[in-house]
Design brief:
It contains 12 helices and 12 strands. The chain has about 325 residues and is of the alpha/beta class. The protein has 2 domains: about 220 residues, Rossmann fold, CATH 3.40.50.300; about 110 residues, no CATH class. β1 and β2 form a beta hairpin. α3 crosses α4. The chain is globular. The structure holds iron/sulfur cluster. Iron/sulfur cluster binds next to loops.
Length: about 325
């Protein structure tokens, strides 16, 4: 059974100019021990979706649809119950560790509080768990680090402390929002290795939000590609890289460093995503798509199974055209 099930999620922000539909009818699920990547450009709705799942959106946001953690419905759950679940059963790590860490309290104080908020243990036991948590994420001399303030640590160390804090209570669901974007390449590799270990040891379901398909290839089992608030393609990672089906995914793949381009048309995706204040009626990628047809401007393409496992795509192009273009792209990349 899926640990996290999201069905027809709609997240709308009320603004002075009118409602902005940041997430528009997204459905997805992730099992324990599985890593699901959510990929797309900034503003595509991936962070709004993760904050909707965690119940961390401001009051100006309206969340509709269904988000279930196991068999518990989270949409409409009172704030107190959501707070109890956060940190205990689900946790989130952010690009900027200072989103979670308090600069004026020591690492030790923050970790001990995080344990005691959700577990009935003595201070000494909470301290032991905090040291164990820091050691598990590769912090040297964890006992000494308890006395440090966040700003005394390097960016990579702060990221590790935040991950340790998120995992202290062994959550069943971990959402990681661009966890490596701000880090140098070496630290990035270490954090990805750490997440691989977590998945092996804790058997948590992990949702990894990123704009980087390279990170997805390293870590994820399945991937959902989002564009302008909707999922436009969903597949296993192997399937996505072997037979990408959506013109937007082709553009993302073509822009991966070190890859050859299958088609000059896809070298760069021209233009920018549409305003979600007044989104286009048909396919939201139409204005940037080199393959656009009349039907694309009028009818939004539904997310439709491709017939290969769990893969699905939202595009009006005929299957044989998508297969040919996708194979050409991945074929030339391998060349
Ligand atoms: Fe391009 Fe049309 Fe497919 Fe949209 S539906 S991605 S515009 S071909």
């Amino acid at each position: 059974m899926a640990l996290l099930t999201v069905e027809n999620l709609r997240t709308t922000f009320r603004t002075d100019d009118g409602p902005v539909g940041a997430v528009d009818g997204v459905s997805l699920s992730v099992d324990a021990g599985q890593v699901l990547g959510i990929v797309g450009e900034s503003g595509c709705g991936k962070s709004a979706m993760s904050l909707s799942i965690m119940g961390l959106l401001p009051k100006s946001a309206m969340v509709e649809g269904s988000i279930r953690l196991g068999d518990r419905e989270l949409v409409g759950l009172p704030g107190g119950e959501l707070r109890r679940l956060r940190g205990a059963e689900m946790a989130m790590i952010f690009q900027d560790p200072m989103t979670s860490l308090n600069p004026v309290m020591t690492i030790g104080w923050q970790l001990v509080e995080a344990v005691r908020l959700h577990q009935k243990v003595s201070k000494a036991e909470a301290r032991r768990l905090a040291i164990e948590g820091l050691a598990a994420v590769g912090i040297p001399s964890p006992e000494d680090r308890l006395r440090s303030y966040p700003l005394e640590l390097s960016g990579g160390m702060r990221q590790r402390v935040m991950i340790a804090m998120a995992l202290l209570n062994r959550p069943r669901l971990l959402i990681a929002d661009e966890p490596t974007t701000a880090l140098d390449v070496t630290t990035q590799a270490q954090i990805l290795e750490l997440m691989r270990e977590l998945r092996r040891e804790v058997d948590a379901a992990i949702v990894l939000i990123t704009h980087d398909l390279g990170v997805v290839a390293e870590l994820c089992d399945e991937v959902a590609v989002m564009y302008a608030g909707r999922v436009v393609e969903r597949a296993t990672v192997d399937e996505l890289f072997a037979r990408p089906q959506h013109p937007y995914t082709w553009g993302l793949l073509a822009s991966l460093p070190g890859r050859n381009l299958a088609s000059e048309r896809l070298h760069q995706i021209p233009g920018s995503p549409p305003s979600l204040l007044r989104p286009p009626a048909g396919c939201r990628f139409a204005a940037r798509c080199p393959f656009v047809m009349d039907v694309c401007r009028d009818d939004p393409p539904p997310l439709t199974p491709t017939g290969r496992g769990t893969a699905a795509v939202a595009c009006h192009l005929a299957q044989d055209v998508r297969d040919r273009e996708g194979a050409r792209l991945s074929g030339e990349e391998r060349a």
